[in-house]
Amino acid sequence: MGLEVDQCYLIVSSAEFNDTYPLNTNTNFSLDLPSALVLNKQWEVALTELWFKNTATRGQMDLCADFCSESLVNRRFIPLLRRVEMKRGYNHIIYTNPNYFNISRSELKHLNFFIIPRIVHSDSFLREELTLKVHLRKRLTGIF
Hints:
Layout: E1 3-4, E2 7-13, E3 28-38, E4 43-65, E5 71-73, E6 76-78, E7 80-94, E8 101-102, E9 107-120, E10 131-138
Parallel strand pairs: 1-3
Antiparallel strand pairs: 2-10, 3-9, 4-7, 4-8, 4-9, 4-10, 5-6
């Protein structure tokens, strides 16, 4: 049986689960929560903070999570969590008004995050650890 909550924050790193998932990279990584998160109601998720070092000059990336409902982006459906504008060097981005997306599962245990580079002027733009903070909550009702 999993944990039942109304909301929670997850802070995860691309380097955290390399022993369990040796094929993890900074741009595509999987992890397992210590216990399953039971989402009996309608839930949503938003990226609230992001830390990374960008070795490219500038660019954009689509940060995706396999538990997000899919969005139509550039003529294809992807489980988009957030499109991120990148600057060269260390980036610590805080989203004070985050965009929430529906969660497509009723329970979360295994998660996969991946990046689709958009406008990047380098072959390898994320050579170091990517850390992100996401907020999961029951979907608010009555908001259109």
